[in-house]
Amino acid sequence: AQSVTQLDSQVPVFEEAPVELRCNYSSSVSVYLFWYVQYPNQGLQLLLKYLSGSTLVKGINGFEAEFNKSQTSFHLRKPSVHISDTAEYFCAFGFGNEKLTFGTGTRLTIIP
Amino acid sequence: NAGVTQTPKFRILKIGQSMTLQCAQDMNHNYMYWYRQDPGMGLKLIYYSVGAGITDKGEVPNGYNVSRSTTEDFPLRLELAAPSQTSVYFCASSYPKATLGYGYTFGSGTRLTVV
Description:
The complex is a heterodimer. Chain A is mainly beta. Chain A is 0% helix and 52% strand. Chain B is an all-beta fold. In chain B, strands 2, 4, 5, 6, 9, 10 and 11 form a seven-stranded mixed beta sheet that branches. Chain B has a four-stranded antiparallel beta sheet with strand order 1-3-8-7, with no helix packed on it. The N and C termini of chain B lie far apart (36 Å).
């Protein structure tokens, strides 16, 4: 069955430190991969996406993600986080039908 | 461009009451979706629609109904509210197919509490 797993439900990070949020997927076919961000009391916004081509994808607010087909991963990274990055982050994937499948989310907390 | 508009933003219902969550988009998107978000559970698909007059069930459709009479509107109906339906509800749209790389545009959500 197709699925997406976010291993960390909560990640606390000191301000200006680097962060990696992990996402693994399970699929027997090629997939499209997305990261969405949800700021407190808001809807979800698209952060970045991988469709094809270069495996390193850059998104908004200094985030980037790397697609690794052999490890079926799409981890999100930022070299230096800011207090404004406090949010919940969702990994999602699709594989040819109309619906995206979302992970359970990772709550990123920035410690001043 | 308003994007996806959800109303109301907050609502408290009593057990057994009914209500309709409204969702409208002005981007001429064919595909629309309803998700519910519960803490630690991510987003679960309730219903979706690939165009006017066409709807289909998602993972958690029980207790909900939808209709899609126009491209713009996709209301979600709760007939007999239950405490298990306390959640945050998100409407989303995409064109033409989310999985072709366009992703979804989300509304700002409706926070529903059933007491």
